[in-house]
């Protein structure tokens, strides 16, 4: 104990799971935090004796102390899109729903989305995350600084490919690189060193070779990382094989052009063959395994094979519209079960020893730290490392009894067991209270778009379900959308023949075009109604309109032309909007 005998925080009488090289676990252990780092770690009696005058001395009464979790694949911008793309294939998800949504976001949306996402991350014990790539990195940084989290932030870049929204398709290779260099200059190592700027590549289908190789070189020059979705779906591999004339998918091609480096964080990496796993292993590429997202849209990733060949595999939640629950705690549970289950699927025989609890816990902690190139400072509880830690209360219905604490952390723990979270020596959640912002107030931030999204999404789902079961009642639509005074807008809905897909497709599109048009035509009236109802806040109409466009885009990717044409028609019918508050539904 060489530190001066004063500490900011001493946590004692804890079950300390260090995740250090020796996987040391301490019963009745303690940690002393000085400033942003761990100054001492050892038996409670020793640490208490060495730091008798700590500003805060907390008896954890047997609770578990763990390193903060590292979530290595998060789309903070997508938090506001939770629920807009369930049960669709990946290309529909991407081209028809998410890109239209993301490309219509404002900076303010990105800030609100990151705050909301951050709350969920903190509640699941995450202290550090890797942003998968969004548009407004400065707004993400502003939110991360406030939340107190640690993050590797990344701008999403695309300089070619199909399906890009109109306002994204003009980004040149030079712009992609320069804008990221600018962000690096502005935000790297800010917020007391908690924010780092990485380079982003959305995926190979939207990146030219020049963008890939310049990104590789600039990231290396700046000594930072690259985050990229790699080998997500079979279609991606097939396209790469066809267009690049190689015998397997993305990884084979990336190896061929000498793109693979140890600062590359590859998200998903589901469709890899054996040689490609060894390319990753040799180059030291890190992988972010996102089990929930993989099960929804991608497939079984060869995680056990990657781990066996020495690839550093970490865990990510992906974004809210591809997982819905942004909890790394849930991902640990899923990672173990899915990869045990996959053994039976690929070899015809069960293997319950695949991905044991210790391995999964390492994926969420020290492997996560390695994946974000920060393991010299985080990922384990060790003297000298940053004080990024979480306090788990296992004495609840979900975790008792504690026959094997490590197994219970992976197989039994819920986010609700996490009581307190410290990042960089500061409590960012204490006794389940988020410290740096008003959580209730933040949750009401997206109220501008939320009621409308939910109302319209309810409408869309109703139409979609009518297509499946052939039943649709006009009055239900009227009730759901609260367009009680103008049911005429839906007059054609009950009569459309559900067995004709084309008709249904046209129906949806025309319906939403009319809604958007009507909304815009009635903006003043709508604004007044909103103010009177008191549900929406500022910029109600703009937000409303944006949300509607998002949803309309989601219904049909080729909506733009028709919208522009009809939007110019000044003879729009008038629709009276009434009773839009959710309580009146
Ligand atoms: Zn992603």
TrEMBL record:
Gene3D superfamilies: Metal-dependent hydrolases, Urease, subunit C, domain 1. Keywords: Hydrolase, Metal-binding, Zinc. Residues 29-54 form the Aminodeoxyfutalosine deaminase/Imidazolonepropionase-like composite domain. The keyword Hydrolase applies. The lineage of its organism: Eukaryota, Viridiplantae, Streptophyta, Embryophyta, Tracheophyta. Pfam families: Amidohydro_1, HUTI_composite_bact. PANTHER family: AMIDOHYDROLASE-RELATED DOMAIN-CONTAINING PROTEIN, AMINOHYDROLASE SSNA-RELATED. GO terms for molecular function: hydrolase activity, acting on carbon-nitrogen (but not peptide) bonds; metal ion binding. This is Amidohydrolase-related domain-containing protein. The keyword Transit peptide does not apply. Residues 64-427 form the Amidohydrolase-related domain.
